[in-house]
Amino acid sequence: MEEREAAMARRPGCTRCGGELTPDEMTVFHRSKGRCFSCQELWDHHLLCPVCMVQWDDEDLNMVGCDGCEFWVHMGCDALASAVVMVGEGDASEVDYFCP
How many CB atoms lie under 10 A from the CB of residue 13? Predict the structure, then answer.
């Protein structure tokens, strides 16, 4: 029994929220990059900034959409994102942005 308790104590938590992973979540640990099912669902729906992993919502105005992966990045998370927005404001044409 001590061996099982020691194994449980070594079990990693979700890499995003830190919550304890269930046995089912552990079976897909590598595919989900260590995220629990709830955090993985947010990731699958592109609701997390891929840089800081914080969930964003429609009220967040300082976001830039990545033309490569289609995730939204907080401008404060990537200096290039802020530069792209400033360039885009001065030009009617769209400026491509690719997140880190």
Answer: 13
